[in-house]
Structures are given as structure tokens and as C-alpha cells.
Design a protein that fits this description.
Layout lengths: L25 H23 L6 H5 L4 H18 L5 E5 L7 H6 L4 E6 L2 H12 L15 E5 L7 H4 L6 E7 L9 H14 E12 L1 H10 L4 E3 L3 E5 L17 E6 L3 E6 L3 H10 L2 E8 H8 L3 H10 L14 H7 L2 E8 L25 E2 L2
Parallel strand pairs: 1-2, 1-4, 2-3, 3-12, 4-5
Antiparallel strand pairs: 5-11, 6-7, 7-8, 8-9, 10-11
Bound molecules: S-adenosylmethionine.
S-adenosylmethionine (SAM) binds next to helix 1.
């Protein structure tokens, strides 16, 4: 569903004409920064323009089972790595689709930030219990703050100095938007590292570069996909070879039916892992979604959760499940967990939660630029 936004002035400038990596001068740096801002705005406008769906619209979605599977994967990550009372930072929180999951995990404090102003507004109404399909839900039990800003540009530890440290940082289906430049990727990881306590956990989901590159190489041209998704690379990648010396700004156009239609960037996982180590974030695990499902469906508690969410039917009458095309789309993603080095300081009590509110008005949303 589209909110009906006009293209912002920045997006109407069109795609960037210059690629700075071929011209490493001062001007080119400026052009690169400007073009990345244009792409970040494109992504923000795309997500801002999507309105909350009604329950009926959601159930009618051609990827309803994939959406449910994604929710199951995020729920499993949250249940595995969150403890009661934890302070949580949700980077690129979107419309607050994970608020209920955090509530079930009984978190003590929540800060959500997203570049898309429209999504933060939807998140606010959802948190307040004003969203149409949440009307009958009990109020969320944790205080929260919401912000709008570019998580891969802004030095968040300054903005959130009073709220940190966080026990858990989550970045669901969004870290790849930082991989347009090394500076943005570094900023993303620096923010996570600076805001997590020692021993704190960073959980997330993002596209699996290995799968995407493999599919690109198997495809006849520069595009591939099925009835629910398509991926399109530009001519500049026609050789389908990627230099290990340039692991950033490998852009493709991603379309996921009823969900996404915007530029995304390849995140070579080994580069992500070693860059994260520079910021004291150590890999706990990485799993493609297929492997993740097979592994956690061995645990009865998560089987039961899967039945409740209904991605693979409800275990009784409802035998509806992901279509083969949805299951193939799920293969495009991976889940990761990293841990911030150091021993948790048991004496440190996060007393910053009084900065959170139980009801958030429009004026309470902070815009960080
Ligand atoms: C696929 S949605 C995921 C939303 C949410 N995490 C979820 O799982 O439901 C991707 C989100 O990333 C956000 N995003 C993209 N680039 C961003 C940036 N530079 N800073 C903050 N948020 C960003 C988008 O606005 C969008 O809400």
C-alpha cells in the first residue's frame, strides 16, 4: 500500500552520475557523499510511503507466509538473546513490527530509530495502541523513545549518551543499507559498539550475499527472481566478478512483492565479520534462513511458536504454507548474532529508562540530522 507521497526533491535529481571510486579526488568524495545521501533518501521515501496494512490486506498478501516466517525468525532471535528487563536499541525499527516481540520478552526499555519519518509515525501509533489492528491489545509494558534519523550517518552515541548502555541491539532486515560506502558501514558498526554494554548482544537479519552472487552467476543476464521477488544488477557488474579490494557499493535493485522496491547493497559476510571485530563485536553465529529454520524447528518451543504464527500452517486444520517461490525468497537471507567483547559490569544498573515514555506524542519524536 502506498501512502501517496510525491518524490522528494532529492530523489527527483535522478541517480548519481559520478562514481567516486574511479576518481579519488576531493570533489569526488563530495559527489560520493551526495549520491549516497540521495540513495539513503530514496530508501527512506520508499519505506515512508508504505502505510500500515489492515489485517485483511495482510492476510491477502502474496507473501503472507514469508512474512510470518520472517516474524518467527526474529522472534526466535529475540527470545534466545533477550532477558527480562533488558534495554533494547532497535536500529531501523520501521513501523515497530517487533514491538510485540519485545513485549513478550519483557524488556525494560526500548529505543527505536529509523530514517523513514512515515514509518516512525506508524511505530508511534502502534506503540500507543492507536493503530487500528492493535486497538484491542493491552498496552506495552516497557517505556520507549522513538527517533528519526540515518543510523549509518549520525554519531548515535552522542545522541543516546544518556540512554546507553544497551543490553541488546537489533537491526532487522536493514544493515545492508549501510553498505553503500565504507564510511557508512563503519558508522553503523561504531554506533552499535559504542552503545552496547560489554557482553551485550547484536542480533540481526540481512540478505545473504553468497546466495545472491551465486544466483547472479547462474542467471543468463543481470536479473533473476521468481513470482515474488526480483533482483537486478547494473551493467557495471556485467562480468559478475567482484574485487575483494572493493567490497562496498555493490548495488542492486530489489523488488519483493508487497514489501520492498528499492536499491540495496551486497554485504560480503566475511568483510562484515572482520570489520565488526575492529569494533569489538565478535561473531557468535551466522545462518542462512533455511539452515536457521531446520535448526530451530528441532526445538519444541519454537515449533509451537511456528504453529501460532502460522508460517507453516497451524499444525491442525490449516495446512497452508510457504509457496516454493516464497521459500526460495527466504533463502536470500541470513541471521547473525554478534557479542560485544568484555565482561558485563554486574554493578552497573541502567537507570536511564526514565527517559522513556509510556505514551509518545508527535512532539516527543526526536529528529536527528
Ligand atoms: C525491511 S525494513 C525493516 C523494518 C524493521 N526492522 C522490521 O524488521 O520490521 C528496513 C528498514 O530500514 C530502514 N532504513 C534504511 N536505511 C536506514 C538508515 N540509513 N537509517 C535508519 N533506518 C534505515 C527503512 O526505513 C526501513 O524501515
Amino acid at each position: 500500500m502506498k501512502r501517496g507521497y510525491q518524490d522528494s526533491p532529492s530523489t527527483s535529481l535522478g541517480p548519481p552520475q559520478s562514481r567516486a571510486r574511479n576518481n579519488p579526488g576531493g570533489d569526488s568524495q563530495f559527489l560520493e557523499d551526495e549520491s549516497m545521501k540521495i540513495f539513503a533518501r530514496k530508501v527512506a521515501d520508499h519505506y515512508s510511503a508504505r502505510t500500515n496494512q489492515t489485517l485483511e490486506e495482510r492476510e491477502a498478501s502474496p507473501i503472507i507466509h514469508l512474512k510470518k516466517l520472517n516474524n518467527w525468525i526474529k522472534s526466535v532471535l529475540i527470545q534466545l538473546y533477550t532477558r527480562q528487563g533488558d534495554a533494547v536499541l532497535d536500529l531501523a525499527c520501521g513501523k515497530g513490527g517487533d514491538l510485540i516481540k519485545w513485549d513478550k520478552a519483557k524488556v525494560g526499555y526500548y529505543v527505536g530509530i529509523d530514517i523513514a519519518e512515515g514509518s516512525i509515525e506508524d511505530c508511534r501509533t502502534r506503540y500507543n495502541g492507536d493503530a487500528a489492528h492493535h486497538m484491542h491489545r493491552k498496552k506495552f509494558t516497557f517505556p520507549a523513545r522513538l527517533m528519526s534519523g540515518d543510523c549509518y550517518e549520525v554519531t548515535l552515541d552522542r545522541v543516546l549518551a544518556e540512554d546507553a548502555p544497551f543490553d541488546v541491539c537489533s537491526c532487522q532486515f536493514a544493515l545492508h543499507y549501510s553498505w553503500s560506502t565504507k564510511a557508512r558501514a563503519r558508522r553503523a558498526l561504531a554506533n552499535v559498539s559504542a552503545l552496547l554494554r560489554p557482553g551485550g548482544t547484536f542480533i540481526g537479519t540481512m540478505p545473504d550475499a553468497n546466495v545472491i552472487i551465486k544466483k547472479l552467476r547462474e542467471a543468463e543476464g543481470l536479473a533473476f527472481g521468481n513470482s515474488v521477488y526480483s533482483i537486478h544488477f547494473d551493467e557495471e557488474f556485467s562480468e559478475k566478478k567482484f574485487k575483494s579490494s572493493s567490497p562496498f557499493d555493490i548495488k542492486y535493485k530489489f523488488h519483493l512483492e508487497d514489501a520492498v522496491d528499492c536499491p540495496e547493497w551486497i554485504v560480503p559476510f566475511h568483510v562484515f565479520k572482520s570489520l565488526a571485530e575492529e569494533y569489538d563485536l565478535e561473531l557468535v553465529f551466522v545462518k542462512n534462513f533455511h539452515e536457521f529454520v531446520h535448526e530451530y524447528m528441532k526445538k519444541p518451543v519454537f515449533v509451537e511458536l511456528m504453529c501460532r504464527l502460522g508460517a507453516l500452517g497451524d499444525g491442525n486444520q490449516d495446512r497452508s504454507t510457504l509457496s516454493p517461490d516464497e521459500w526460495e525468497a527466504a533463502y536470500l537471507y541470513l541471521a547473525y548474532v554478534l557479542r560485544k567483547r568484555g565482561q558485563p559490569d554486574r554493578t552497573e544498573i541502567n537507570g536511564k529508562r526514565d527517559r522513556g515514555l509510556m505514551h509518545i506524542s508527535k512532539e516527543d519524536i526526536m529528529y536527528v540530522r
